[in-house]
Amino acid sequence: MLSNIALRTALRCSVGVLRESAPPALLSGHKVSSASGSFAFAAPARRYARTAKTKVQGPESQLGDLSPAMLKLDYAAVPLAQTTDDVVKRLLSLELASHSEKLALKKEQLIAKVQRDESDRNSVEVQVAILTARIRNLQEHLLKHHKDKANKRRMLMAIDKRKKLLKNLRLERYDAFENVCEQLGITYTFPPEYYRRATRRWLAKKAFCIKVFQEVQKQKAEQKLKLKQSAETAETQTASQ
């Protein structure tokens, strides 16, 4: 028992001496032959360079076709802005414009495509163009900030409003409806017949409501007939007198 303990302590002391006397190349991880009586360490794994992550490119912005040399909306009709020097023209152009100024110019471009005449600002076509510019701007915003619930709600409300306007325009003026969809790049989809699954209970309730509505209409028709007959009898009595 004592001989085993003494052998273990001797081995531990020899290992400590070898570690202290080992060269720095041995401690850095280089392989050393086992014939020299030293320990062999595994070579470090090579760390290869990681490939750069490619950014996911979303759809192109609706403001991408605006040239930086274009003047702002407030200065586009001013003739003096066309003849100024390059520094002032750069300040008045879209190169240093804000996002709201670019969006206003884009909105005017969409309105010019579908308006009936130059003074038209309140027609259904113009309202659809304004809503289209607003919806696309909110869609681009939500691609970067997908947790913005308030702007998502505004976008859905604008989409519903545009659907109603397009539906009415399609029923009243189909040629104008086709022109608006073509000029603005809108794909009109028909709404589904039912927004929920038709269960037996729902079908029975619907049939009962239709039956009640028909009975009410019959009662109203009978009341109108009685009033009409009473009015006719009153007219005949007054005419006979």
Fold and architecture overview:
The protein is an all-alpha fold and 241 residues long. It contains eight helices and no strands. It has helices spanning 2-21, 24-27, 86-92, 99-114, 124-144, 149-172, 174-184, 200-240.
Characterize the main sheet: none
Query: What proportion of the residues is helical, as a percent range?
Result: 55-70%
pLDDT average, as an integer?
A: 80
Radius of gyration: 41 Å
Question: What order do the helices and strands come in, and which of them pair?
Answer:
Blueprint: H1 2-21, H2 24-27, H3 86-92, H4 99-114, H5 124-144, H6 149-172, H7 174-184, H8 200-240
Helix pairs in contact: 4-5, 5-6, 5-7, 6-7
Search tags:
mainly alpha; Helix Hairpins; flat
Please outline what is shown here.
By secondary structure, the chain is an all-alpha fold.
